[in-house]
Task: structure prediction
Amino acid sequence: QVQLVESGGGSVQAGGSLRISCQATSYRYHVYTLAWFRQAPGKEREAVAVLDTDGTAKYADSVKGRFTISKDLAVKILYLQMNNLQPEDTAMYYCAADSSVMPGEMFNRGEYRAWGKGTRVTVSS
Result:
């Protein structure tokens, strides 16, 4: 089982940038599909960026062109670089991982069994 711990959240003004991180503890990190989800109060948890085991990155339309997902296999850290942040990006951000995500289902939260506890991002206008 993989353990995940997020960090790097904070408060920024609209147009600012943040990079959040997810440290993993796993002997099989290289076989995991990795993802960033976010959840605002009163809303469903939604995927914003996914990184497949082959290195393919996919993004939600709402963050495409502004967010970049990446990983460092050597130190088992997943990153989310967030640029040009907007108030609607305000949410708790969670990283997630699973070794058996079905093709075409990487944006479904039910596919992921391992979750971090989240890091909060607040964007003010």
The chain has a mean pLDDT of 96. The first strand starts at residue 3 and ends at 7. The radius of gyration is 13 Å.
